[in-house]
Amino acid sequence: MPEQLSPHRIAVIAPSPVSMFNLAIPEMLFGKVERDGRPGYEVVICTAEPGPLPTSGGLDLYVPHGLDAVRDADTVLVAGTGAPFEPEARIVAAVREAAATGKRIAALCTGAFQLAEAGLLQGRKATTYWAHAEELRTRYPQVELCADVLYVQDGPYLTASGYAAGIDLCLHLIRTDYGAAVANKVARLALVAPVRPGGQTQFTQTPLPPERGTACADTRGWAMRNLDKPLTLAELARHSGVSVRTLTRRFHAESGVSPLQWLLHQRIERAKELLETTALSMDQVARACGLGTADSLRAHVVRRTGLTPSAYRAQFSRLGTTSVTGTSSAA
Predict the structure, then answer these.
(1) Does 318 lie in the same domain as 226?
(2) CATH at 317
């Protein structure tokens, strides 16, 4: 991404009654991004009718900015509301105008209804909170609904499912704008999980264990410290002190994916960080993150990002003009 003299401007549109949690997510995450000691983002919350704004929690917030803020934004993010839900004509018009000028537009939870009403999601993949998915499908049959994923990007339009999936979408935006190392640093500062793939399911049919997400925490931490080693499912289970079957069940309940899917995701994220922040050769990067060879590294990075490792490094490197030596031809 080219260096910017001013922060990337994000207009967060708050419908009425807005979800307070949806509004907290952009402030929490985008506000932690810095580049060269300067803020990476400028976030402005706006609404159709400036002034007191009802929330789904029964409180009123004071929002001084109207929808004119959308015109000056680089990215528009539409927050969700509590049910019952109806698109707001002025918000729909503002979103449609923003799309006509080529802005990136995202929606959290039921914010997807605003984008769908504006016609932006016709023939495109989108998602929303699973409890409202059937309503979205019924109202807007031309939307290619992906009802069981965390978030979806189709061209310049992004939609997230409910609650914490908004965190995943915002981290994805940060990663897109500033790279994996910055996004993962923000995740650590906010004490949330690193960037998760959007295709992860919103929920699972397997009940959470009594620890509610902590049974495999030690094993996940151990695996993160040993990503350069060829970890197997049996070794993960051995470290956790349970059978492979039990580990798999618990892991899926806690993270939404299998142990090996989680491990592969972490390896690719580590590879992206190394591509951004080091001058290691492709073979060295592959070995350091446990992907084995430069060919394997290339296949996984291309599948995840659409870029070869060399192209990814060229776009997101934090090393300036520092030369990279020993790059494999497989890059």
Answers:
(1) yes
(2) 1.10.10.60
